[in-house]
Design brief:
The chain contains twelve helices and 17 strands. By secondary structure, it is an alpha+beta fold. The strands form three sheets. The chain has a seven-stranded mixed beta sheet. Strands 12, 13, 14, 15, 16 and 17 form a six-stranded antiparallel beta sheet that branches. It is globular, with a radius of gyration of 20 Å.
Length: 354
């Protein structure tokens, strides 16, 4: 029996999504094989060991419960432990960590670096891959270097833009044309993303993106089907059946993902088998090129004009609720949720034992 520390919450705009993902992971963990140790990080950054009803994760009231004990992980490579800060001096031992932290301070390599320094096995990509996949400018740079097809793009910092805004605006218009998708380089779940259709909306979109990050990415609009593929594994990853997104809004923004239930999800994607196989192969290639391990969801466009498969972005800690695309695509591929968790934990242990 292994004890698994499930880490959720965090100082991120995706805090609420993390709570729902953690509820699903904790609810589906095989009690015959694993003892869960739930640890939440509040929006303010406090670590709390939570032993209460899981339903309070779903409604967001978990940290108001009496079942929370302040805690901190110990950086000791010999014995992985959580120190309770209730005056008792108690240490709770665990074998591995399942990070369910979406977005900044969880998906960007920060927690992964800490766990690597502490010698703690954990589910998912390592520090370098997590950081590279979180930063859209870095992802696009690596994809270009690896010859992975993607939309035309530009990236620049707030400092650079502040010195010559009109120059950058004109460069974007000339090189990318409209529509242009403006994105913070480091933000998940489409937070701060805007579709600019003219010069005026481009300026507003750039300002909005800079409110989220000091570096942004601009990408040409691609007229195509939005397709996702879940990937699982270390050296020999496997890809799931593909899923198709039909957003209720103009594009798949935060509201379309989590608020408005009108977005359509199709598993499998409505594509010919040979095109689905092409997407699955592209997903594994991108996964390996970006140094991923454990898991990632890799998103693509399939362009309407010529059927070209183009990388959109990777997500190294995708949504993990029971209705999220990552577990749903693997369920459709013959790997149900509980087995998926077991495989991810096995991969984490194997990676650390290498």
């Amino acid at each position: 029996m292994k004890t698994i520390l499930v880490l959720f919450g965090g100082c991120s705009t995706e805090y609420e999504v993390s709570l729902h993902s953690a509820y699903a992971v904790l609810s589906h963990m095989d009690p015959a094989r694993y003892t869960p140790l739930a640890v939440g990080i509040t929006r303010e950054g406090q670590w709390l060991c939570y032993t209460g009803d899981l339903s309070r994760l779903e409604d967001g009231t978990w940290q108001q419960a009496a079942d929370c004990i302040p805690c901190t992980p110990l950086v000791e490579r010999e014995a992985h432990a959580l120190l309770l800060l209730d005056g008792s001096g108690r240490r709770l031992l665990f074998d591995a960590v399942f990070p369910v932290l979406h977005g900044k301070n969880g998906e960007d390599g920060t927690i992964q670096g800490f766990l690597q320094v502490a010698g703690i096995p954990f589910v998912g990509c390592d520090m370098l891959s997590s950081a590279c996949c979180m930063d859209k400018a870095m992802t696009n740079t690596l994809a270009d270097a690896a010859g992975i097809p993607q939309a035309k793009w530009l990236g620049f910092t707030k400092y650079e833009y502040g010195k010559a805004p009109e120059e950058y605006n004109k460069k974007a218009e000339d090189y990318l044309g409209f529509p242009i998708f403006v994105k913070p380089a480091n933000a998940g779940s489409s937070v701060g993303v805007t579709k600019a259709v003219d010069a005026a909306s481009l300026k507003k979109a750039i300002g909005k993106a800079f409110n989220e990050d000091s570096k942004i990415v601009l990408e040409e609009g691609v007229d195509g089907m939005e397709v996702e593929c879940a990937v699982l594994g270390n050296e020999e990853p496997i890809a799931s059946i593909c899923g198709e997104i039909v957003p209720c809004n103009d594009f798949y923004d935060y509201e379309a993902k989590y608020v408005n239930p009108s977005s359509e999800l199709h598993i499998p994607a409505r594509l010919p088998k040979e095109k689905i196989d092409e997407v699955r192969t592209a997903a594994c290639n991108a996964y390996k090129s970006l140094g991923c391990s454990g898991l990632a969801r890799v998103d693509f466009f399939v362009r309407h004009s010529d059927g070209k498969v183009m990388l959109n972005e990777p997500n190294t800690i995708p949504g993990f609720t029971s209705i999220s695309m990552y577990p749903k695509m693997f369920a459709a591929s013959g790997i149900p949720y509980s087995e998926l968790i077991d495989r991810l934990l096995t991969l984490a242990m194997e990676k650390w034992d290498r």
